[in-house]
Amino acid sequence: MSIKAETRYANSPQEVKTWTTAQTREALLIEQLFEADDVRLVYSHYDRFITGGIMPVSKAIQLEPVDQLKASYFLERRELGIINVGGAGTVKVDGEAFEIDFKEALYIGQGKQELIFSSKEPGKPARFYLNSTPAHTNYPTRRITKKEAEIVTLGALETANHRTINKLIVNSVLPTCQLQMGMTELKPGSVWNTMPAHTHDRRMEVYFYFEVPQGQSVSHFWGQPQETRHIWMQNEQAVISPPWSIHAGAGTSNYTFIWGMAGENLDYGDMDGCPITELR
């Protein structure tokens, strides 16, 4: 087993005006999160947000601290959110086992020391998608199923954005320090998410796109509302969204994405909207 951790730095709106496509992808796109029996992590200087993936195949994997944390264990000063996007798996938290099935979540509070990930069937490995943020206190570890989520349906087929939002790790479901996570599923025939576009300057966000059919792609839109850019993304890739940036996607097919947020507050509705007709 190996742990691959990289660092991404924060950038200003003025700086990104000169970026090429390659520079944009290098700074914001996370192309590979899952590799057999490995841990892959990206540490962002936007709100010290960590995005990661663990796929245990032939053995259980323990999440160890990385150099970026300068900590004796991973959650010494952090909290962790997990959503399984693969086969059934188990996460042991200081010896207590939590079974996490497809599209189920687990929240682990600050201070837990031993984190061990395993798959129920090696032929159908779990794919644990991780988000982690700094934490100031310990909240209880809890598994969250879709039945326990706060579920909202928005949009319409006529506007190509009919979607179900599953709020899994949010303050209306359980207490956290700052991490918020959920999963949005687009209905067949819909390709747009998160419209109308908005920013929330008090929080950053990371999007993870999955269930993108083979041969299809998603164009992720980002940038200031009056100066937008795009990044073409494939299945099981993630993208970092700065606080000053819009974040929306349009796919060549319907898809699912996980959103994770961190920052100033826990108010899901804290958004600065931009009318669709004013986007540039």
From TrEMBL:
Enzyme Commission no: 5.3.1.17
Cofactor: Zn(2+)
Pathway linked to the protein: Glycan metabolism; pectin degradation; 2-dehydro-3-deoxy-D-gluconate from pectin: step 4/5
Highest rank taxon of the organism: Bacteria
A GO biological process held by the record: D-galacturonate catabolic process
Cofactor remark from the record: Binds 1 zinc ion per subunit.
GO terms for MF: 4-deoxy-L-threo-5-hexosulose-uronate ketol-isomerase activity; zinc ion binding
The keyword Metal-binding is annotated on this UniProt entry: yes
Annotated residues for binding of Zn(2+): H198, H200, E205, H247
Catalytic activity: 5-dehydro-4-deoxy-D-glucuronate = 3-deoxy-D-glycero-2,5-hexodiulosonate
UniProt KW keywords: Isomerase, Metal-binding, Zinc
Enzyme class: isomerase
Function: Catalyzes the isomerization of 5-dehydro-4-deoxy-D-glucuronate to 3-deoxy-D-glycero-2,5-hexodiulosonate.
Family: Belongs to the KduI family.
Protein name per its UniProtKB record: 4-deoxy-L-threo-5-hexosulose-uronate ketol-isomerase
Lineage: Bacteria, Pseudomonadati, Bacteroidota, Chitinophagia, Chitinophagales
Gene name of this polypeptide: kduI
